[in-house]
Amino acid sequence: MTAETARFSEAALAEYRAILQRYPERRAALLPTLWLAQREFGWLPLPVLEYVAELMELPLAWVTATASFYTMYWKQAPGRWHLQVCRNLPCALRGADDVRAAVEQRLGIRHGEKTTDGRFSLEEVECLASCDTAPVLQVNNAEYHENLTVERALALIERLANG
Q1: How many Å apart are CA 146 and CA 163, to the nearest integer?
Q2: Could you tell me the residue ranges of all domains in the chain?
């Protein structure tokens, strides 16, 4: 992918224009535009960041600095199943470390890594805002699995691996 080939679809471009309407300044729309770009392209490689900078008429340094600051923006292509395990205090107190360790052992990867077949990637995140149902694991930025035990986490991995 190059900056020339990284282009929003017509639907994403329409969504981008709607995003711009919600903000008094173009640069204020950078976070939701990056989110849109990640959804459109799957992750944020340099050509996509260059495209966003060009589209938003912002310096590339602003766009890359913003994308690199927030962990919710993926700078590497995630696995088919991107697993995020919360490591914040409520989750840690209720067994998140055991869940994470079991997932790491089962998949043979650690934080920031992807399985060799590209099916799974693992990320520890600071908070998934589900403290009352800790520990929690999120799949692909969308699907929450709460009140996890090691057994339930491993069953989830098996379901995803076979699904």
Answers
A1: 20
A2: 10-69, 81-162
